Each structure stands twice: as structure tokens, then as C-alpha cells.
Amino acid sequence: MDAPSVDAAHFRHVVGHLASGVTVITTGTGESRNGMTASSVTSLSADPPMMLACINNAVPTAEAVSKSGRYAVNVLGDGQGELARQFATAAADKFRGVAVHPGTLGLPLLSDALAHIECEVVEEVTGGTHTIFLGRVRSATAGNGQPLTYFRGGFGRFAFASDDEVYGRARELVLSRAYPADKAVPLEDLATRLGVDQAAAFYALTRLSSDGLVRRDADRGYVIAPLDVRTSDETFDARLTVELGVLALALDRITDDEVAGLRRRFDAMAAQLVGDRFVDFHGYLDANYALHEYLVSLAGNPLLTATFGRLSIKSVMTRSFGATPSTSQKFVEVQGRLVDAIARRDADGARQAAIDYCEAAKERVREILSLTGGHL
């Protein structure tokens, strides 16, 4: 017997219960550019890196992607519901008022998106009213934050609020040195201190491990990762090496739009400092990381971006700078010099500002470690 058919409206209602991430697919050919909000996007393969994007054939973006042979996946953050609606609504210029910069493939990327993935189409598959574009990933960058999700016809934030709250309190325990460096964190003890069950405490430990604040030891379980001068120096020197390489490779071809992107990220970071105190340390940390990750991405080299992501910069800064609410405006000033030098395409000035920032960061960690017995 033939299976009974499913009404299209009923089907849309049912599949609306499947929560999915929200992206904006963008592409461009010549002077034109197209974009649309899409949730039918997923990773297809890790080796080689490939993405799948499913686009309604009635939407101009489908034809534009097919014609250009390229598309970018702009992953939206949890505060970008209006941006999703803008690109989901028919308009003569969906990009109006939206900050955009060119990607590695020359595609228009939404500058404030949570992540960007640029793809070259290797195959098109027609399925009913849609075309499935299989894309080989050529560039991928990501910032920090929570993704926007689509569920039952609306946009929202996908998060487990209670788990996030437990993780935040566990993080404060580690940063306040409630557990000594290189000592195990007993799961039962952490759960008792936090007043939660062991499952919630375990979730917090796994996130702290991702942050680099704890590490998994085969014999002892989760152990507080120590921070000393050597670890700090090696980390900041590694970041400097990557950034000097980026400046050498890309400074001459950085566009004015990309400089504007740097300035926006710098301004967001600077706003988190008043005098010599953090307004919001974690806000500063995220903004600082976003600034330097964006700088590295300007080289258009995925290997450099991936290398930067593996440096545990945020962990080192959290363990050191986060130990005190005070800091110095000199960190903002030297990074401002770096952005200004890049805007002037001043290679010597940019290189010196990057070196000065590295040395200032290492010196500040030394000052903090001197107050805590040499390690945190």
C-alpha cells in the first residue's frame, strides 16, 4: 500500500519543532550581491571540509549562488533576530544599513555575524522546490557568543540557563583560587559547593576544560591548570608571531571596510574599561579576542586562523588579568596604535605596536604572578 500523503502545511508545522541555527547565505556576482536568511544549513564533511545549504528555487539567491558558484554562510548571534528578519523579507536592498566586508573569495560577509564560512559549490542537487548546494569550505572564522536559533516559527536563544548559571559560579570558584593550582577538583565537592547535582557540576567542569581553566588527568580527573611566567610568555609570544605574520602577508591588501571592522571591534573593547578598571572583565575579554581574531582573519589563511584559535589566549588572560578588577589604559592605547597604524598601512608602526602590546601583556602577568607566589 502507498503511504498516506502528508499535507504541506501540517508538515511545516511539525518540522517547525526541530530547532535549528539561523544563518544568512550571501553571494555576489560582479556588482550585484544577494542574501537570504536560511536555517537549512549544516556541515556535511570534515575531511574535506564541506557544507550543505538548501535554498528555495523561488528565491533570487538560489540562482545567484548557482551562477557565481560560491556562497558564504553567516552564522547569526542570539541578538540578531532583526537582522534575520531583514534578510528573510523581500526588499530591493537587503543589505541596507548592514556592515559588510569582503571575504577570502570576495563574497559579502556580514561583519557582525557570529561566524563566517565561505564555500565553493562542487555539486547542485534538486529536491522538490529547493536546490541543495554542496560546498567545499575555503575559509572559516568564528567569534564568541551564543547562536540565534529558529524554533516553531520564531527566533530565539538556545541555551540551558540553569547550566550556564552553574558554569558561571564554578568559573568564579576557579578564578578566585578556591582550588589550588595543579590540584584535582573532586566532583562531589564541587557539586556540594555549588548546591547542585553531580551532573550539573560535571557539565561545568567540561566547559571549564574547554576554557583551558582545568585539564583532564587520566589518574586524578579534572585538575586546575596552573599558570606561570613561562606559560604566559610562550602564549603571548605565539600570538605575536601569528600577528606579525598576518601583517607581513596582508597589510598592503587590507581594505577600508576591513579597517572599519577593526575599529568597531576596538571600540567595543575600549568601552569595557573606565580609567584603570574593567567595567565587565568577561566583556572585555570577549571583545579583545574578537579584535585579534578578526585581525588574524584578514590574512585569509585558514591555517593561521586555526593556529590562533589553539593558543589558549582567553584562558591565559582569564587566569591572569581576571584575578584583579584593575588594569591599565595602556593596553587600550597600544592596541589603538596598532589599529591606527594598520589604517595608515604603516608596516613599521603596526609591527612595533604589536610588539609593545605583547611585552605589556607579559609584564602585567608577571606583576600579578608576583603577588600570588609565582603561579595561579
TrEMBL record:
Ranges for domain HTH gntR-type: 160-227
Superkingdom per UniProt: Bacteria
InterPro entries: Flavin_Rdtase-like_dom (IPR002563), GntR_C (IPR011711), NADH-dep_flavin_reductase (IPR050268), Split_barrel_FMN-bd (IPR012349), TF_FadR/GntR_C (IPR008920), Tscrpt_reg_HTH_GntR (IPR000524), WH-like_DNA-bd_sf (IPR036388), WH_DNA-bd_sf (IPR036390)
Keyword Oxidoreductase: yes
Keywords, comma-separated and alphabetical: DNA-binding, Oxidoreductase, Transcription, Transcription regulation
GO-annotated molecular function: DNA binding; DNA-binding transcription factor activity; FMN binding; riboflavin reductase (NADPH) activity
Family from the record: Belongs to the non-flavoprotein flavin reductase family.
Protein name: HTH gntR-type domain-containing protein
